[in-house]
Amino acid sequence: MEDRKLTVRAVERALDILMCFTRNSELGLTEIAGQIHLHKSTVHRLMTTLEERGFVIRDAATEKYRLGLKVWELSTHLSKSDDPAVLLLPAMERLRDRLGETVSLYLRDGKDRLRIQAVQSNQAIRRVAQVGARLPLYVGASSKVLVAFATQEDQQELFQDPEWPDMSDPDAYLQMLEEIRERGYATSFEEREPGAAAVAVPIVNRSGVVAAALSVSGPVGRISTDTLHEFAPVLKEAAREMGMMI
Amino acid sequence: MEDRKLTVRAVERALDILMCFTRNSELGLTEIAGQIHLHKSTVHRLMTTLEERGFVIRDAATEKYRLGLKVWELSTHLSKSDDPAVLLLPAMERLRDRLGETVSLYLRDGKDRLRIQAVQSNQAIRRVAQVGARLPLYVGASSKVLVAFATQEDQQELFQDPEWPDMSDPDAYLQMLEEIRERGYATSFEEREPGAAAVAVPIVNRSGVVAAALSVSGPVGRISTDTLHEFAPVLKEAAREMGMMI
DNA sequence: CCTAATGTTTCACCACATGAAACATGGTTA
DNA sequence: TAACCATGTTTCATGTGGTGAAACATTAGG
Fold first, then answer.
1. pLDDT per residue over A223-232, tens digit each?
2. CB nearest B11 (choices: A11, A76, A110)
3. What pLDDT sits at residue A1?
4. Closest partner residue to B45 among A8, A45, A71, by Cβ?
5. What are the tens digits of pLDDT across the range B116-132?
6. Pairwise CB contact (< 8 Å): B77 & A132
7. What are the CA-CA distances from residue A77 to residues A53, A118, B36, B132 (Å)?
8. For B9-76, which CATH class?
9. Which strand (E) or helix (H) includes residue A65?
10. What does the domain layout of chain A look like in residue ranges?
C-alpha cells in the first residue's frame, strides 16, 4: 500500500449506508448488507450506532430502517444564505411564469448532477421534476452544459470512468461540446426521458466559474426543437441575472 | 465492562461532529476537537472522511468546514408523505391567520424538543421562531405538554437526567403536569424567553399517541395570561383536526 | 413440521483507529 | 527579521476495538 489511507473505514461505511437511503426510503438489514457488500453483523453494528444517534429510525410497522430526525435537523442548518437553491428560486419562478414550463437548477456533483431546485409548470400536462434527484452526466441538456463547461482534466476523468458509456464517435461528441460552448446552450429531445424535451444554459457566477446549469423542460407535444431554440435567449438572459446573485 | 458496546465508536464520533454544525454553521478543526473532546489528529482523519464523502465541504475563503451537499441530498429523501412538518403546514397557517400569532410545532426528541415547523405571525412585532431549533424540555409551554403526556417511565428518566434542573418542589411540579393533562393545555409566560408568552396543546394521532405539541406564542404586550386561556380552545380544536391527519 | 429468511449476539483475531509528537504553514507581534 | 502562536497536516508505535464467521433467535411460509 503506497498511498496510505487517511480516512476512517468504519465511518466511510456508515456514510455509504446513509446514502443507500437516497435510492430506497426503507431498507432492511440484509438489503443494506447486499448493497454495500458487507457482512450483516457489521451492518447491524453500524445501524445500531446510526439509530442510537437518531440518524435512522426503525419503522414500527415494517421493522425496516428509514432516515431519522437528525438528518432533517442537520439539513435545516445548512447555510441558507449562499445556497443557490433558495437564492435563485424567485428568478426561477419568474422564468417559469414567462415560459410556462418546468424550470430546473442543476449542480455538478462528482460524476453526477444534482437537481437542487425546480419549479413546476402549472399547465395540466407538464414535466414533473423532483428536487434532490441525482442524474447521470452523460445524457440530458443540463448534463451537456455541465460537461461542456468543465475543465479539460475534469472531462478526461469523466470520460475514462467505467460508468461512462462507450462513445461511438468521440470526435463528434467533442465537436458537439464545442458547439455548446460557442452558442451558450444545449438542447435535448427525448434523450433521457421519452416525451420530454429541454434547453439548458450555464450559470456563470461573478468569479467567472460555471456554478450551475439552468434548464427549461416540457412535453414534446408542446415543445418542438424550434421552441427549444426560441427559449434559449430567454434562458441565457435569466442565467446572466442569476449569475450576478451567486 | 459489563454491558458490551454494540456500537461503533468511530462512527459515533463522526456523527457527533456532524451535529456540531447545528450550533455553528462554520467550524475549524481545533474548534471541533474542542467541542467533542478529541485530539485534533483524530478529528482531522474523521473530517477527511466526511469531506471525501461530501458530507462536509471546506469553505474556499475561510478554510473552515461547513455541511456539504450530501446532507441536503439525504434530507430531500426523507419520507415526506408522513412528515408532520409538511402535512400540518396548511392547518398551521390557518391557525396563524385566525389568531394572528406565530404558530409552532414541536416533536419530542430524546431529552429535547425540536421545532419541526413554524409559521410566523405577520404583525410588525412578532415572535420569530426558527425551524430546526433544539430546545430544552424543562421550560416552555410546549415542553410542559410533551412532558405531561409522556409515559411514567419516560418522565422518571427525564427527571433523573443530570441535565434536568433541580426541582425546588417536585410535588408542585407533578401537580402542574396533572393539571395540564386535565385541562388539555399548558401555558408559559416569559418562561424561556423574556417578553414571550405561549399556549401549547398536544396533538394526538389516530393511534391515540401524543405525537407532537402545537403552540401559539407572541409578545407579552399583546398576549396576557387571559389571552392564553382564550386561545386554548381554538388550539385544541385545531390540534384535534391535525391529529386526524397523522 | 421443516425450511428459509430475517435479525441478533458471541467471540477470537489482528487490522486499523488512535493520540502523542513532530512537522508545516500562515498570521501577528515586537 | 526573528520569534511567536495558532492553525492544519503527517508520521508512527501501540493495543484497543472493529471485524466477519458462526451460532443463535425469531418469524413467516410451504
1. 999 999 999 9
2. A11
3. 29
4. A8
5. 988 888 776 667 678 88
6. yes
7. 17, 21, 19, 7
8. mainly alpha
9. strand A65-67
10. 9-75, 84-245
